Amino acid sequence: MTRRSAGGTYRSAGGPALISLVLAWLLLIPAPALATAAQSVGTPAPPRFENSAVSATASAMASMAGGVSFSLTGTTPFPIRSASVRYHPVGQETVYAVPAALPVSAPDGSFSLSLVVDPRQDGLPPGLTLSHAWHLTLEDGTKWSSSVGRVDWIDDRFAWDVVRVNTVEVMIGAEDSSDRRDRIVAEVRRVLPEIERVIGSSATGPIRFWVYDAAADLAGTQTANTEPWIAASSYPGLGVTLAVIPPEATIEIGRLIPHELAHHVLHHAATSPFSAPPLWFDEGLAGWFQTTGTDQFPALVRAAAAEGTLPGVAALASSFPFAVSEANLAYAACWSVMTYVIETWGEAAIPRLAASFAADRTDDQAMLVALGIDQRTLDIQWRVWLGASGESSDASP
Ligand SMILES: [Zn+2]
């Protein structure tokens, strides 16, 4: 149940576009600050064109029904040649730039611009604060930027209670029973320190954990082509999880809360700007923390091994199948690999693997450093342990 943040206009990290954006944001430093810096090294203060050509006020509103509406009204001494809004989740580097339709020029220079975006199209879930600014270019070439504003992109279709447990903000329906809320919060309190202890790391930023009553409610936060079987989506890079825990299905508490929180903590421990841990580790460890929902895994894995359909460790490294039964088997296989690793090397192997995967090594190099074997050897040893390649079939996990 991993969902990584989707691409945006400037997603291609490391390219010239990103560098120019960094510069663009630096230019938003207020003009007096720039002037002070220039004077301190004995250079004449630069002419202050910023924000002097245009006088305008920006605002933004967000709702799940209507997306995010940005508006800008003011006056300009020259017609506007181009206009755009740039926005990004606070704390994130990926910037989304969207051009706006140009306003009709008024004789007195007044103008009004508006733009509506749907963050879902950019793979941005509710639970984020978006930083935004307007950027204009006038006919005479003058560039102007509005001051930076912030707008909360939240799920306003329902009333929520927010319960804070350390870094986690649990969002539970305000109408939900107190018994349900207590069970959910108790599970967060129990499992978060356990996950942080085993992984040897803490989630640094806030984690917003939305608890929905029904899959249809969660579906409203997603784009239309989302897999229908999704019970939870985690965005560790954005600090957001969306999970479906129906009021009558308390068994889902022990399945989804440990699983999704493990994704967040592992993300902080095992992800670098250039690499992410293999899925068998990420999903396997998330499954290993579950207290429910794994009962059928040993039989699934044993049956697949007997039929020769058990996916290998290499196949489980980077992507999961879409079909429900195959995806189930993939989760079960990852859980089984992780169980084998922990039974063989102990829990101490977890922080070693996390640190090794975060060190921008290949998967094989990372595993050699952390476990002393490469991926292929892990696959062979895991299958021997399962009894798949030996006479014994009772060496079940
Ligand atoms: Zn998952």
Describe this structure in words.
The protein has 397 residues and is an alpha+beta fold. It folds into 3 domains: 16-151, Immunoglobulins (Immunoglobulin-like, Sandwich); 158-269, Collagenase ColT, N-terminal domain (Glutaredoxin); 271-397, no CATH class. Helices cover 36% and strands 22% of the residues. The protein has helices spanning 16-26, 31-40, 178-199, 215-219, 251-270, 279-288, 297-307, 324-345, 349-357, 363-371, 375-386, and strands spanning 55-63, 67-75, 80-89, 96-99, 110-117, 128-138, 143-145, 149-153, 160-165, 168-173, 207-212, 232-235, 240-244. Strands 3, 4, 6, 7 and 8 form a 5-stranded antiparallel sheet that branches. It has a 5-stranded mixed sheet with strand order 9-10-11-13-12. A hairpin with a 4-residue loop joins strand 12 (232-235) and strand 13 (240-244). The protein starts with 15 loop residues before the first helix and ends in an 11-residue tail after the last helix. The model is unreliable at 1-51 and 390-397 (pLDDT under 50).
